[in-house]
Amino acid sequence: MPESPEVQALADDLGRRLAGHEIRGVDVLEFRVTKTRARPLESLVGRRVAGVTRRGKLLDVTLDDDAHFVVSLGRHGWARYGGAEASVTEASVTEAPNAESEPPPPALVSIEFDDGTTLELTDAGDWISLGGWVVDDPFEVPAVAKLGPDPADPDFTRADFDAGVVGRRKQVKAVLQEQESLAGIGNAYSDEILHAAQLSPVAHAASLGGDELDRLFASTVGVISEAVAARSGVPIDQLKAAKVAAMQVHGRTGEPCPRCGDEIRDFSFASTTAQYSATCQTGGEVLPLRKS
């Protein structure tokens, strides 16, 4: 799932490349991507891109008439430059280094610009999670309207963190991923944050003491801000691979924990699987893994 560090780098790249350019054509190959039926994505034709920003895990493309093209990348969505520039397959983006190549996902939306650039929006999932809205105000998009404060924002404060986390009778990993509480964090970076803070992912936020909350705040800001800085300038076709390579525990099942040397383990979380170090995070307790 794209998370704030990679989406920020993507937004920066798109903004540098597309700002000032006119949209000459839009080809929607999967109708379910369009979320504003009264304002289809084809209505973008003739407008110029004023800039591209990030809102949580979403892209916000501002247009010259102050309209907005908001893109939710969902669970498996991404963007790539098409045409002559599509020389690197998406497999190199989505898979870990040295993994076997897989066919790139299909483009569900193709957008052509006046300088010959083609931007393709893709989705590699078994179900379509990519979505696009054409709106006058990005807060018309429900996923944007509900966003909480963003730990990648330089103005993010301890008070913002405490308002979303302290006293919550919910597993702390779930709180970190709850977009209404803290914007931009998903499964991967919540694993990394909790490992850095040496906290159990299944502990309730309400049970955390002062020192634990201090560590969690520092790790939340530190992990996200460091990842944003590390991804800056990475070509968009390499961002997902860079994310995979940088993970300390997420996706590292069976490998030694870089802090304590214990084996990194899987555990079942919601509808997915996450990773942790029992020695570092749970006092040696092995968390349950759903049987397949």
From TrEMBL:
Keyword Hydrolase: yes
Domain Formamidopyrimidine-DNA glycosylase catalytic: start-end pairs: 2-128
Domain FPG-type residues, every copy: 248-282
Gene3D superfamilies referenced in this protein's UniProt entry, alphabetically: 1.10.8.50, MutM-like, N-terminal
Required cofactor names: Zn(2+)
InterPro entries: FPG_cat, FPG_N, H2TH_FPG, Ribosomal_uS13-like_H2TH, Znf_DNA_glyclase/AP_lyase, Znf_FPG/IleRS
Catalyzed reaction equations: Hydrolysis of DNA containing ring-opened 7-methylguanine residues, releasing 2,6-diamino-4-hydroxy-5-(N-methyl)formamidopyrimidine
Keyword set, alphabetical order: DNA damage, DNA repair, DNA-binding, Glycosidase, Hydrolase, Lyase, Metal-binding, Multifunctional enzyme, Zinc, Zinc-finger
GO BP term (any one): base-excision repair
Pfam family, one: zf-FPG_IleRS
Cross-referenced PROSITE patterns: FPG_CAT, ZF_FPG_2
Example GO molecular function: 8-oxo-7,8-dihydroguanine DNA N-glycosylase activity
Family: Belongs to the FPG family.
Name recorded for this polypeptide: Fpg/Nei family DNA glycosylase
